[in-house]
Design goal:
- The complex is a heterodimer of chains A (about 375) and B (about 100).
- Chain A folds into two domains: about 190 residues, Urease metallochaperone UreE, N-terminal domain (HSP40/DNAj peptide-binding domain), CATH 2.60.260.20; about 100 residues, HSP40/DNAj peptide-binding domain.
- In chain A, about 30% of the residues lie in helices and about 20% in strands.
- In chain A, the strands form four sheets. In chain A, strands 6-7-11-10 form a four-stranded mixed beta sheet.
- Chain A is elongated and about 95 Å long.
- Chain B is mainly α.
- Chain B has a single domain, classed as Orthogonal Bundle (Multidrug-efflux Transporter Regulator, Chain: A, Domain 2).
- Chain B is built from five helices and four strands; from the N terminus they run E-E-H-H-H-E-E-H-H.
- Chain B has a two-stranded antiparallel sheet with strand order 3-4.
- The N and C termini of chain B lie far apart (about 40 Å).
- Classes of the chains: A alpha+beta (about 375), B mainly alpha (about 100).
- At the A-B interface, helix 1, helix 4, strand 3, strand 4 and strand 5 of A face strand 1, strand 2, helix 1, helix 2 and helix 4 of B.
Chain lengths: ~375, ~100
């Protein structure tokens, strides 16, 4: 079905720029960490956005039928069935396969092509005689006359697709911002999403963190080039896991005169050796002596916000929790500090210690297993 | 580092995401989201002064449900049930990590 060339270009521009960046959210959602708090720049998108020079020099043919495990004459129903089977097998949330994310991307890509009659027809026509992995050279301007739609895949997902797919179905042909402005098309840029990994201490004191993002941008020839952006971000005091910091105007650029999108940073904490965070609350295990637990005591606990003296009530037992209101994360309202009491026995390694234990054994009528016998 | 080089953002829980923003981020029609909200499939999304307010967790849930409906032709209620289970799985995995068991 012939369509207006400009529409194809606009759709491709959208996919190749915004999609790739949006991908930071998805790939980082399984803690692969496309964005980190770093002091040196990182190259988080290298895995999914190869060097544009390499792309020009070598393009491997992909056998989508092989990827989905179906014959070349498979019906649409067969293709759907096979896709679902693989989508279950490689579902990133539950799959035990080590390369589930990569495999799912390949399966999505194959399905995007083979489930769409027009894309499938184009692929069949162009792929005749090619073997998987073989160098692929599409004839110039081959895509004139085809209309390619997203067919259910978002721009972010389509950004995971291979260079082979991009060459076939997402060629730019040199459109850039000026084309949109000239055409009177003004579209706001999309929001970008990324995770930021913080130390727990950062929420107690507030912090400035430098983050580096590598974002694919289109050059004037319509080719993707990686651009490194370094941002210094103020982390407000009291942030909690799962919250998002919105940086206005730091997302994808708008098309035409559209305003840029925002950058949304989702807060996560690195695991801490001593503390556990649950929402606003801070959990900490406090070792106490038997006499501190039995007689009560004031003990000092070291918190990221400074030392705190806490009263252990008389008659405390191991495993009990003490809640200290307002001493958790300094959010608004502040969270609580939950102290888990752990009674630690002194070792009976000296004659004096043995004597004390023997005195207790003799003089205290105490049987911790008494309940079990009743 | 100069003071004016430092970007200060707003915390999303104070600003939240709107229905339209979530729809755009998930590549779904706002109507899809509105229908699912009406059907009670986003139990933790609240409306304040007539405006739906989405957190980052709600956004992740919308993405999952949309993917389940698309990949498996799941009915919305089934997609919501799977999303419930995956959220519980997420929480348990966080606990395992915090306990140093994974």
């Amino acid at each position: 079905m012939p369509i207006h060339r400009k529409v194809v270009l606009a759709a491709c521009f959208h996919r190749r720029t915004v999609g790739s960046v949006n991908d930071t959210w998805r790939a980082s959602s399984d803690f692969k960490g496309l964005i980190h708090t770093v002091t040196a720049p990182i190259s988080p998108l290298d895995e999914i956005t190869p060097n544009p020079t390499e792309r020009r020099s070598r393009l491997e043919f992909k056998d989508y039928y092989q990827t989905l495990g179906v014959a070349r004459d498979a019906t649409a129903e067969d293709i759907k069935k096979s896709f679902r089977k693989l989508a279950r097998k490689y579902h990133p949330d539950v799959s035990k396969e080590p390369d589930a994310v990569t495999r799912m991307q390949a399966v999505n890509e194959a399905y995007a092509v083979l489930s769409d009659p027009e894309k499938r027809a184009a692929y069949d026509q162009l792929g005749q005689g090619y073997q998987p992995g073989q160098d692929f050279r599409p004839p110039p301007d081959w895509d004139a006359g085809f209309e390619f739609s997203g067919h259910g895949f978002s721009t972010a997902e389509a950004a995971d697709f291979s260079d082979f797919f991009a060459e076939l179905f997402g060629r730019m042909g040199g459109a850039h911002h000026a084309d949109f402005r000239a055409a009177g098309i003004h579209v706001p840029g999309e929001d970008h999403h990324a995770k930021i990994l913080l130390e727990l201490e950062d929420t107690f004191h507030g912090a400035t963190r430098q983050i580096s993002l590598q974002i694919p941008r289109l050059d004037t020839n319509g080719r993707v080039a990686l651009e490194t952006r370094t941002l210094n971000v103020q982390i407000p005091k009291g942030v909690r896991e799962g919250q998002m910091i919105r940086l206005a105007g730091q997302g994808a650029p708008g098309r035409g005169e559209g305003r840029p999108g925002d950058l949304l940073l989702e807060i996560h904490f690195k695991p801490h050796p001593r503390f556990r965070v649950d929402g606003r609350d801070l959990h900490l295990t406090v070792p106490v002596t038997p006499w501190e637990a039995a007689l009560g005591a004031a003990v000092t606990v070291e918190l990221p916000g400074g030392a705190l003296k806490v009263r252990i009530p008389e008659g405390s037992q191991g495993g009990q929790q003490l809640r200290v209101r307002g001493k958790g994360l300094p959010a608004d309202p502040p969270g609580d500090l939950l102290l888990h009491i752990k009674v630690v026995l002194p070792p009976a390694t000296t004659p004096k210690a043995r004597e004390l234990y023997e005195t207790m054994a003799r003089e205290l009528a105490f049987d911790p297993r008494a309940e079990r016998r009743t | 580092m100069r003071e004016d080089d430092i970007l200060s953002g707003s915390l999303l829980e104070e600003t939240w995401l709107t229905l339209e923003q979530v729809a755009a981020a998930c590549a779904v029609e706002p109507e899809w989201l509105a229908r699912h909200l009406d059907d009670g499939l986003f139990p933790h999304v609240a409306a304040v002064a007539g405006t739906w307010r989405f957190s980052s967790a709600n956004l992740a849930r919308a993405r999952r449900m949309r993917q389940l409906e698309r990949d498996f032709d799941a009915v919305p209620e089934l997609a919501a049930l799977v999303a419930d289970l995956l959220e519980e799985l997420d929480e348990l995995r966080v606990r395992l990590r915090q306990a140093g068991l994974s």
